[in-house]
Amino acid sequence: MTNRHGGDQDERFKSLYQKYYWRVVRFYVRAFRFSEEDAQDLAQEAFVRFFESMDEYRGDAEWAFFEAIARNVAYNKLRSAKTQKRNAQTVGMDDPEMKKHEPAAEDGPDYVEQQEKIARVRRLYQAIAELPSGQRECVQLRIDEFKYDEIAAALRISMDAVKSRLRDAKKLLRAKLGEEGAFPEDQE
Amino acid sequence: MITKSEWQAINRQLMSDDRRNAGDPPTAEEMLAYTRGELTAEQEASVRERLVCYPDLVRTLTEPFPAEGANPGDPDYMPDEEFARHWASMQKRIRRKDPRNGRVLQFWRISTALAAALAVVFGVLFVRARSKLDEPQAITDIQELSSDAHRGPADVQVLTHGDRVLLVAPLMGPNEYDQYRLDIREAQSNRSVWKSEPLRVSDEQPLAIVVSRRFLQPGKYKIVALGISGSREEEVATYSLRVPSR
Question: Which domains does chain A have, with CATH numbers?
């Protein structure tokens, strides 16, 4: 290594890199769903940026500073990818899962049943869309299979608040839709 | 009964519809400020709304950042020889000058600053000779901009009155890029009307530009601060600004 910062700091950097590089890579893969290759590239980028400024930080502040850099690098990568894809994403009513319920032909044997199914799906869509925003956020994340503590962490609210919002939302959906509004986890 | 997969399809539809209304995912700056609890209630609500549209981002908040490193002997610990290979490839990315050359660097910075100052003076003299309209002026109108992440893009700032205004754009947190650049863009079309040269900025030093009222027609603009690393440019902050009619 070059003696860019002085021997001590170079050694400190080397030590941090050796201890954390692969853990940061795994964090990127788990949290950001990056490919292993992208995660390695980003981890190195984060460490390079850290190296360039590390002499300004010490102790706990040093690792907090690295975390900020590492997250920043990843969010920028994620955001640029998402911004590019945003307009291309159309799902839901055009989603294969939804299309399954479209009638094949008007005179098909299941036509009425299919139409009813579409109407039920649309009623549920409307009912979720009309939930108060706090409840709706919890409901959507729960449908996306996030755990209660994960929802609490993501929305920066307490677990109790998550539980109470979900309870209220379930009641509202049941009141509007009856059994149709039964949450997947509550269905027998 | 509506099945679980149908619930999920409905959810995807809601997210897709919400993405169209809510716009782009939160910026890195917004996400970091959100996790640190530095946003106002309104800004936090805006980030939450967009988080639900982009659930991949939620995972980034629920997964803990590594707090403990691996020790020699752990599978995650990088051996010396592997580190040596990484170090070699990192050299290509490390672009900053060696601080041991600080004096030389300082000399060149001062020389550059002097040269730039002289260029400005001669430039001003030249323009002055051509027209008295653009004489150097003392600036009394100084406006500190607040980034959209801190203020919310809906709450647009208005350019203060005055022929020339010094706009100061603070950058949040440590400066992580080699250089920065400012773009003035029309808010609606996102068309760039002016771009600065790349600027080297020290930590906690803001970016600043002098804007002539004659240059900007009344309307809405975005001043975008871009961080530059090698050939990559990333938006680091946006400051929405309305130029009122005179």
Answer: 7-86 (1.10.1740), 92-186 (1.10.10.10)
